[in-house]
Design brief:
mainly alpha; rod-shaped
Length: 38
Amino acid sequence: MYLTFVTLGFGFALYLFLAFWMRIKDLVYTKRSSVFDL
């Protein structure tokens, strides 16, 4: 049970990290394509 909880937590953290990375990449790409206006 503890092992399944650890694997679930690790998978969820990995999913969050991937989603966060994709969002950051999107923001950087759009900001770079524009004229760096905030």
